[in-house]
Amino acid sequence: MTSSRTVGAETAPVAEAPRQWLQPLFPGALALLVLSAGALLLRLPSAAAHAVWVWEYGLIVAAAPLVWRTVRDALRGHLAADLVATLAIAGSLLLLMPLPGLIVVIMQSGGEALERYAEGRASFAVRELEAAAPRTAHRVRQGSTEDIPVADIAVGDELLVRPGEMIPCDAIVLEGRSHVDVSRITGEPLPVATAPGTRLLSGTMNGESLLTIRAVALASESQYARIVELVRSAQASKSPLQRLADRYAVWFTPVTLAACAVAWLISGDAVRVLAVLVIATPCPLILATPVAILGGINRAARRQIVVRNGTALEQLGKVTAAVFDKTGTLTIGRPAVRRVITTNAISANTVLRLAAGVEQGSSHQLARTVVEAAHAASVDVPDPTWARDDPGRGVAGEVDGHLVTVGARSYSLEQVGDPDGVTNRMAGDGAALRAFVTIDGAMAGMIEFADQTREELARTIAQLTQLGVRRILIVSGDHAENVRAVGDMAGITEVHGDLLPEEKVAIVRDLVTSGETVMMVGDGTNDAPALSTAQVGVALAAHGGGIAAESAGVVLLADDLSRVADAIRIGRRTYRIARECILVGLGLSAIGMLAAAAGALPPVAGAIAQEAIDLAVIVNALRASR
Q1: Could you list the active site residues?
Q2: What pTM was computed for the model?
Q3: Which domains does the chain have, with CATH numbers?
Q4: What is the pLDDT of residues 585-619, one digit of tens each?
């Protein structure tokens, strides 16, 4: 798959889009100004006769954008809640009764502004991904190094990757040993040891040592570029949801037109028809949903849950399938010491103490983990007399007069050998990451690392089940056996491991196709395409996953997985209140329509009655924020 843009090329800084919610207020503000001007003219006897014409012409100007948009959408076959409001405005103009029309313009523009505000700012996921890509690469030619744009990398080029730099394209290691952080791409939490012949993916991060690599793919065709393209295509292919108000307008608008026809047939009075249109103007539809959504968004924000738009909140209320990444989502996302296994001649605390002492001379992530584990176990960590780091293999040094090595099994065997097969018995058959410890020329023990599950995991899964989420899955790029172990611990039976980002997308897309409303929860770059594909993506921002956060409709600021259940609970309550407001508001409007059709409610009184209904609906919708 080739991206339509070259990832890594210079991109403009990502800036927040200007707020668009003020724009719909302009017609309403103009209508309010016109109303005020006409009222002022009524106070002047010499100009009172012109007040109606000021309102009439003002209504034409103020309503023009609203009417034009509604007519355009209607011609395209989109029947929206705004259609009845537009007919009421047109009737007010034709009958030279501009006051009801001006009131309708004010309420409609206010509702649209609320809805725009609730929709929030646009996502910049693709640009964030492109901005995070490497810009330059260090190419080696004839013994010298030159900096080139990543777009100029050719297959077969030799490249240098310095410590802390991102791998610019898919490549194979030629020289050097290091550890590479692959968690952003594959989801595997522990750094991967690299040596000549190791295959590297673009977007992964080099660790502590210099590497010489050979490019096996163009930057635009490498793994990171495929992730960018997956996010772009997922966002482009998602159809926008029809507004909740418009879904009710599909049947309410024909009912209103039928009531107008009956009123005309009974009385032949156009004013009575206008009264029906005014009282039927679906301000409860236009106002109830954004007010309830704003309330739900604010309530979620108090729980440190950022909901980007009303669509995300509505989809949270409908979730039937929850898909979780593993690393950093169901687990804490960093290695921890799970256990220390020793030979019979030495204690676990002694092995941990001496290993932590020599590891103080290493900059490797697992070295820091060993030192932290020793401190957590209240073990006094001595300083090494000397230490030598062999990148990608292990560390050796002298601690308290003992010669200590900590490293991979092959590194330890080079130091002491293993004629009795002690390392095989300690390691067993598992796939966990291990560091072997030798002391004074003898195998002393083994430190095993694991990515720990979150304390709140089991509770969160139970809450999701209680909320009616019928399918819960784990999708991860980590090894299948590690994913299965987490699934067993959490009580999740649908687990998938060893996945690339596009395979995660395929699983999410299959769920959507089967009729599920899918929530995807993740925290890394490799989760961004699946977050964009799901009906609602939830990103854990506590681990700094900016790209994942930009791809998601919901962002959890607190490092607490149980907030996922809170978000669904808030979404369902908000959606229920919004529907309740709409149904109650439309019911009251229907009663008003009957009164107007019978001639008991003139247009201006109908507009005032409609505003009273709106007020009742808004007060009820505010419950969503409590």
Answers
A1: 325
A2: 0.64
A3: 25-120+239-297+571-625 (no CATH), 134-226 (2.70.150.10), 305-330+454-557 (3.40.50.1000), 333-453 (3.40.1110.10)
A4: 888 888 988 898 888 888 888 877 877 887 777 77
